[in-house]
Design a protein that fits this description.
Helices cover 36% and strands 16% of the residues. It has six helices and six strands, in the order βααββαβαββαα. Strands 1, 2, 3, 4, 5 and 6 form a six-stranded parallel sheet that branches. Strand 4, helix 4 (113-126) and strand 5 (130-132) form a beta-alpha-beta unit. The protein has helices at 15-19, 25-42, 94-100, 113-126, 148-160, 170-179, and strands spanning 6-11, 45-51, 79-83, 105-111, 130-132, 138-139. The chain starts with 5 loop residues before the first strand and ends in a 5-residue tail after the last helix. The chain has a single domain (6-182), classed as Rossmann fold (3-Layer(aba) Sandwich). By secondary structure, it is an alpha/beta fold. The mean pLDDT is 95. Helix 2 packs parallel to helix 6 (170-179). The protein is globular, with a radius of gyration of 15 Å.
Amino acid sequence: MSGSRQALLVVDVQEAAVAMAPYRCGAVVDNIRALIDGSRASGLEVIYVQHDGDPGSDLEPGSAGWEIHEPIRPRAGERVVRKRYNSAFRDTDLRPYLEDRGIDTLILVGIQTEYCVDTTCRVAFEYGFHLVMPELTNTTFDNGDLSAQQIYELYNERIFRDRFARTPSMPEALELVRRGSRSV
């Protein structure tokens, strides 16, 4: 996709979710931080999505758990899109924001694989965005029926890969952001 313009979309990596220790959380956060650092160095836009929970919930706006995880917090001037639904597009200005900037490719990372990451992936796909979902850059929790590892593997290896998104290795993904918006 030579000539594509890409951005990194970081979905719901908030203190409350990280504190619950999802599957391989340390590696996922480290990989997301590496992509953020690489994107910033290459001039790719980093866009954060922050879930607004109900009053009294762990993700209540303004609460400590609602804050974006400290090691990857946005810098001044970086875009934060607040949402109330699984989709980062529903009742937000994310789509027009991306379209106004000519962004057609999203490097999608975050929490929770089978909810907000999956829904955002599918909606972005339906809107015509190209998606890149690098290995170990999304995570989830055991759900009582499947382990977090099983959920992660099912979505990343069977659902996302080659259907909705490219799923490169981290070295490949870092090379994509190093090249910036010149190509994907």
